[in-house]
Translation initiation factor IF-3
Amino acid sequence: MIWRCLTIKELPINEEIRDREVRLLSQTGEQLGIVSAREAQIMANEANVDLVKISPNAKPPVCKIMDYGKFKYEQSRKEKESRKKQKTVTVKEIRLRPSIEENDLNTKAKQAIKFLTKGDKVKVELRFRGREMGHKDAGLVVVKKFLDIVKEVGTPTRHPKFEGNRLVVTLDPKK
């Protein structure tokens, strides 16, 4: 017989409850007192519903007489509703180079403006290679130009920051 067959989300029901005494709640939520698990199971069977352990860490554990299938269905509906109300913010990434031409920079900026108007965050990353590492100030000028182009729709969360051989700044959409 397997006693530890529970997952974290699943509540023990009916015969899975192995405690001697439980604090019993009725279907309406009123307390019926502390009874043995067998008596609670008999009461649940008479009502033609399930006995569910809702608080296993309490002393004694709290069990409720309820229709478990209906309970799980309502829980899944509540989760769906909460997921509908959530807005997932995605981070789009735009890569630049220190030697980028003006038209290419404008094209990347237009793309960033499109992302920001959709409500996404934009991570701008300027990568340095080889000898370019000696001219970090040129990369900073390119990033400042980029930020000037997109300043109407996005605001930087912080100043551009060097992370190894990259210059990184994150833009949030303006509300």
About this structure: Strands lie at 21-25, 31-36, 50-55, 62-66, 91-96, 121-127, 154-156, 161-163, 166-173.
